Amino acid sequence: MKYKSTRGDVNSITFKDAVLMGLADDGGLLIPEELPQISNEELMSLKDKSYQDVAFYIMNKYIDDIKEDVLKKLIDKSYKNFDTDKVVPLIDLDDFYLLELFHGPTLAFKDVALQFLGNLFEYILSERKQNLNIIGATSGDTGSAAIYGVRGKKGVKIFILHPKGRVSKIQELQMTTVLDKNVFNIAVEGTFDDCQFIVKEIFSDVDFKKKYNLGSINSINWARVLSQIVYYFYAYLQTKESDNLDKINFIVPTGNFGNVLAGFYAKKMGLPVNKLVIATNENNILHRFVQKGDYSIKGVVKTYSPSMDIQIASNFERYLYYLYDGDHQKVKGSMAALKNDKFIKFNDLEIEKVHQDFDSTTTTNEETLNIIKTVYERNNYIVDPHTACGVDGALKLKDKLDEKFICLATAHPAKFLDAVKVAIGKEPEIPERIKELFNKDKRVYEMPNDVNAIKSFIEQNIDE
Ligand SMILES: N[C@@H](CCOP(=O)(O)O)C(=O)O
What GO terms describe the biological role, i.e. biological process, of this protein (predicted)? Predict the structure, then answer.
C-alpha cells in the first residue's frame, strides 16, 4: 500500500515514510492510495479472535513494508500495558453498548493508537539509525498518551503543547509529572486550536522539519487513524448483531475528527455500519456542518469535556478528500477558505452525501451532567463527560435510527473528577496510578501564543 497527500503534491510513499512524515510536506494529510475491502466471510472469520489478531488482520491490509512477524510483535507489545485481555471490552447496557477504550496506561482511547505508534517509531528509527523530535498539540488526552507511548524510547524527544488552564487537573498532572529529560510540556496562553495551529505552522516549514527530523503524534499521523480503525471491527464482532451481519450505529464523542474518521474508513472497508454519529459538546461546528452545511468557526468555549473543546478539526481535511471524490484542488480551495474566511461553503448535494454516512448531535454542559447522573442511577455505571455527550446523542437519536448503538467510551471518569462530582455528588473510584500523581514533582514551560517563540524554544532543546 502506498500513501498520498490530500492536496496532491506528495504521492506514492511507503507506510514507514508516511509515519515519519506525519503532516504531508505539501501541508495536506496522508491517506492510503486505495481502500482495502473486507468481505463478510473475512469478517466472520475474525469472530472470537483476540484484539491483537484482529489488529494484525486489519493493519496488514495497509502495511506492506513491515514483515508480518515484525508487525505481529509490534502489536503484541503495544497491548501488553492494557489492564484487560480484551484491550477494548464491549459492555451491553441494554439500550446501547459501550465500548470501553480507556484501559491503557493513561486511561483514554488515545492509548490504543499511541502505544502502537511509540513502538512503531522505535522500530523504524532503529532500522534507519535516525532520531526523531516529536511535536504535538493536545486538548488533554493525546499529550499524556503520547508521552507514555514514547517515554524511555531511544532517539526520541517530545514537545507537547497544551492550552494553559483548559485541560482537567488529572490530564495536566499526567503530562507534567513525567520528568524524563526527553519530555517537554509547554502550556500555551491560548486554546487547543492555537496549539494545533502552532504545530502545523512549524511542520509547514519543511526545511526546519527536515533539519530536525520532526515527527507527529497527533491524528495528523496516518498510523494513529489506522490503529483506531481496528476497534470498530473488534467492537462490532463482540455484538449480538454481528451473528446475522446486521448493521449497527456508532456514536463517537468528537473533537479533532480522528476517531470518527477511523470509523468512516471501517465503514468504507465494508463493516456493516448504518450511521456514524458525531457527538459534539457546545463547540459544535461539526454538528452544524452535518445538519446544515454550516462549517463556520466560532470562538472555543470551555466545557466539562475539555478534550473536545476544538473548532478546527484537523482530520476534517481527510474527509473532504472523499467528499470531493478525490479532487485535490477542491480540498486545497476549501482549506484556504477556512484559513482566510473562517468558513467552508457546502452545497445540498454534498450535504446529502454526508448524510449517507453521518448523523450528529450536540450536548450542552447541563445535559452532560444530567446524563452522567442518569446513567449512574439507571445502570450504576459512571461515564466520563465526553462519553456522556455520546450517550446523550444515542438517547436523542434512538427513535430516528432503528439500529442499536455502540457508544465509544473515550476516557475513564477519574480523569474528570470535578465534573463527575458535580453530576452525582461523589467522585468515581480513583485508580492507584492517578492517586500517585498528586504527590509527584512537576515540570512545565509556560509560553505565549506565538509560533516564533515556541519554535525557538524547541530549537534550543532539540537534537539534530
Ligand atoms: N482531543 C485531543 C486533541 C488532539 O487530537 P488528536 O487525535 O489529533 O491527537 C486531545 O485530547 O489531545
Answer: threonine biosynthetic process
Q: Which residues form the pocket of ligand 1, taking CB atoms under 6 Å from any ligand atom?
A: 138-143, 218-219, 255-256, 258, 307, 314
Is residue 435 part of the annotated active site? The answer reads no
Please report the pLDDT score of residue 154 as a whole number. Answer: 83
Which residues in the chain come in under a pLDDT of 50?
Answer: none
pTM: 0.98
Domain segments of the chain: what residues?
90-106+223-424
Q: Which pLDDT score, from 0 to 100, does residue 77 have?
A: 98
Q: Which of 115, 142, 281 to mutate to test the pocket of ligand 1 (most atoms within 8 A of CB)?
A: 142
Taking every pair of Cα atoms in the chain, the longest distance, rounded to a whole number of angstroms, is 58
Please identify, by atom number, the ligand 1 atom nearest to the C-alpha of residue 217. Answer: 9
pLDDT, residue 115, reads 98
The CA distance from 446 to 161, in Å, is: 10
Which ligand 1 atom is the nearest neighbour of the CA of 219? 8
Given this model, what pLDDT does residue 464 score?
64
Residue 139's pLDDT is what?
A: 97
pLDDT in tens, 16-72: 999 999 999 999 999 999 999 999 999 999 999 999 999 999 999 999 999 999 999
ipTM for the assembly = 0.99
